[in-house]
Amino acid sequence: MIEVEVHAALRDFLRAHPDYHWPHYLTMARLVARAMRLGRSASIQAGTFSSCHPEMSLGYLMPLLLWPQAAILVIDDALRSRLQRVEIPRLLEWTQLQTPIVVGDRWPVAEGCDFNGLLLVSPEEWLRDRLGDRRCFPADVPTIIDDLDRLTDTARRLLTIELHDRDWNEGLERAGDPAPVIRDLRAELVRSLFQHPSNPYDAYLLDMDEQAALAEAVALIATPVDAPPRWRTLQRSLADPNCFLWAQLDRQHGGLVLRHSPASIAHALGLVWAQQPVVVIGGAVNTPDCHGDYLRDDLGLEDVTCVQFAPDRQTAGVQLYLPDRLPLPNTPDYKTKLLAELCLLIRAVTQAIPRLRVPITRPTTTIPIVIIIGDEPLKQSIGAVLAAEFGSRVKVERGDLALSDILVCGWDFWCDRQGELPTPQVLAISTLPLPPLEHPLVAGRVACAKLRRQDWFRRYLLPQAMRTLQRAIAPVRSAQGVVALCDTRAIYRSYGKQILRAIGPYSELRYLDADLLSELVSSDD
Q: What is the pLDDT of residue 224?
């Protein structure tokens, strides 16, 4: 069986390359090989993220290279570049295989011959075909997907219908006699949306009157025979109870983008999974009792083999500092107390650096501290105050970081770019990454969950926060560094235990000072 062949080949490779040290290579490889042989879908919670640990890919690359037929690997461009430079050449040289490796956005066709190699494709290109006309890739080809959470974000974006100024102009050109009425309806809609009170995202759900004005305009624009396809698609989708309308405003230039987004993508993704056997790999670890619900209810993936790899306590544990005297984030004193706590942390880390016996090569890969602040106004305010206190060392969402710099950033900036940024010795988190109800993408999903009488907090907000938290701390976990969580809800709220389980394994610290940090970081070198 291919499982035995894959296990033996990867075992010998790992013995010859001791620089690969993730403990679950062989188990993952056997699971992937089994899923491909049986044509049965599987879900693997890896407990680590390939953006931080690209070497984890050995667990699925060896089965893909030894698989005698065609296969597809869905990965983002950054990881693909790394695999093509490092892991794939190493494996091909070791196994002496001649497996064709092709990068593309459609199925390779060479002189009419069948392709029996490995196709590397981006999540966006693969999903655009699977959700659309299905002409670029054949059905029933075993497909491995790395980073499931990012794939679902891509799917939600592709399933969203957007209306820009150019779409309105195109619709008006083809509308004929109703064009003046459409212009009036659009002006009414724009005027109403710009009267919404400002929020940090400048994005808003459409109210009933705004939805009615848009529906009337859509009906007029989509009526002509030569109506733009986007408007016809929107007209068919407006009555879908699973979707909601929202607008993104540009107050400075008076522009806006209207969006029609799905609350649930389970049905759409269910049609995608049915087209071929898949092995989906996610870095975040859900609790066993809710992972099946997440796959079925949120992602439409049913009847799959589920396997979970927990982070190893000896090699992937973090030091967790939980200051317990901070006020709750929604209280007036929180900003002042948080700022004081961050200043203490920065001073302690700064004082610890000269005492560390760190190799000369390490400064290119580490910085003292990264501070994640999800609230946009708070992030800018804290960044400005810290810059006044600590000078040009403080960088707000910038990638050009030096040895002693302090990075202040939001969740998206850190999670999207952590593979490119230095690893911090201390990762400070202001508040838990619970999705903000002020954002219409979150509010729309919550409203749909309420209509279905679902527990929207524990089914959506809390699991999303735990997945984001695990992704954010992944680089610190690999260095067994320090995570400072400045949100006492993790201590005093009923869901705090679930949050702490998502961070684990960890050793709790009662205090932080320069002496302790020197010990902790030196012991990890």
A: 87
